[in-house]
User: What shape does this take?
Amino acid sequence: MNTCTRECHLAAAALQNAGWSKPRTVNSIEELDALPIGSVLARNLDDPEDIDVYVKRSDLGGHRHLPTPLVVLFTPGDAG
Assistant: This one.
């Protein structure tokens, strides 16, 4: 049991280091600006037929038209 618990903690740490974390909400353009390129965002997660998923592809401001709030599903970390 201890080995499984330790392995689970190590796996969770590896996922977090790669950029996966508990989803969080961004509520403003400034928060979107602060996210790194490659971040994955979504809205309408409560309505499977109306879910929208976005990827921040640059810092040129194209993401500024996105509706807030958005849920951050992934931010790139050490993942290759």
About this structure: Helices lie at 2-17, 29-34. DSSP finds two helices and four strands in the chain.
